[in-house]
Amino acid sequence: MTELERFEQLTAIHGSDITRWPMDEQAPARELLSHSAAAQALHNEQQALDTLLDAITIPPMPAMEKRIVRNLATASRSSLLDRVLDWIVPRGGNVSSWAWRPALVACLPLMCGIYMANFYSFGIESTENSWQEELYLISMNDYAEISE
Amino acid sequence: MHGTIFILRDCNADQFLGTNRRIIRASGLRDRILRMNDDKALMLAIQEGDSKAYESAVRQHIKALSHYAYRMLGNSKDTEDVTQEALLRLWTHANSWRADKASVSTWLHRITHNLCIDYLRKDKSNITGELNDELESKERPANVPEQDERLDALKNALEHLPERQRSAIILSHYQGFSNKEIAQVMDISVDALESILARARRGLRTQLSDLQAS
To answer: For B72-92, how does the pLDDT look when each residue is reduced to its tens digit (9 = 90+)?
Structure first.
């Protein structure tokens, strides 16, 4: 492949901006461009295309951007339950955390049940009361024996 | 504290984050790392559910992604849908990003590219048409009708380029990606991309020279 053919290939792929070409191709390309009329013609043709491409801009869309940022901010703010779950099992992406999460969630009602049973007596007197009651019953028993 | 900062300077972010997550959480170093605007630190924070890091990443990438989607789709409604969906996936699929494979920007452009292709294939009739009306020309001089004509011809030619050629030109010329990055976005080899780019530019030049000849 001649130098000019390679130059043509590179302009076709990368456009007229030689700084965007592969580093090792830049110096020989500049050298060729400085003395070859054919290379200059090819380069000018691509430059005209690039200039026209540059002229096509898109309208600013600040309202759309704001809307998206607002919607996504709402989506990313997690609920209280999510935060509790994240606290129990931090999001790590590994399989074990995903396997443990449902197991731990399933244990939550059990833990709640144990806590509630511990907190409320549900009619069962505390051991302290039982002891006092027992003493009272013993004393009753002794009194009965004396009276006989 | 000074010792920790010394560590942060002297080892790479991956090693540091891998071994010092607890220190980062406890000491507020996370904020310092986020300010470094480092892809890895930002994505790690997002993966851990940090909504502030996510909002920062959204602000960082929204313009580039919406511009790419707009140039591909040519209308604001679909652009909004695609951009929002792509950025939502940054939150929901953050774990699928791999630092060794692509930058966050390349990864997000790939998501956006795939969404755009889905949209283009789903409803081709709605996509084209608006592009010519909505795309604006920068500092278009009122007294150069020939230039206007060439610009309109180019817009029309761009609009009618095959999807892959249009995508390659947009990613290369407007989004400023290297050929390697564009190949990653489009999931093709660099050689295939270069062939697509050459065909796209040749197609556009042919349209322009046809106009000049007529």
So the answer is: 998 889 999 999 999 999 998
Residue B185 maps to which CATH number? 1.10.10.10
Please tell me the predicted confidence (pLDDT) of residue B108: 96
pLDDT, tens digit (0-9, with 9 covering 90-100), for B136-156:
554 444 545 666 788 888 888
Please state the rounded mean pLDDT for residues A70-84: 73
Q: Which of A45, A76, A91 sits opposite B54 (nearest CB)?
A: A76
Identity at B110, one-letter amino acid code: R
**Number of domains observed in the structure of chain B:** 3
Q: Within a domain: residue B44?
A: no
B97 phi, psi to nearest 5 deg:
-75, 135
Residue A39 CB contacts under 8 Å (≥ 6 apart), including other chains: A4, A7, A32, A33
Determine the Cα–Cα distance for residues B111 and B129; give it in Å rounded to an integer. Answer: 24
Structural domain span for residue A94: 76-148
Please state the separation of Cα B94 from the chain's center in Å: 16
Partners of A9 on chain B (C-beta within 8 Å) are 198
Element at B62 (helix H, strand E): helix B51-73
Out of B49, B83, B137, closest to residue A55 by CB: B137
Q: How many CB pairs under 8 A join A and B?
A: 116
- For residues B126 and B149, state if they share a domain: no
Q: Tell me if B42 is assigned to some domain.
A: no
- The CA-based dihedral angle spanning residues B42, B48, B53, B55, taken in that order and rounded to the nearest 10 degrees: 120
Measured CA to CA, the distance from residue A12 to residue B32 in angstroms comes to: 45
Q: Please write the tens of the pLDDT for every residue from A11-39.
A: 999 999 999 899 999 999 999 999 999 99
Q: Which residue segment(s) compose the domain that B62 sits in?
A: 51-135
CB B164 within 8 A of CB B196: yes
pLDDT of residue B111: 96
Per-residue pLDDT, B174 = 94
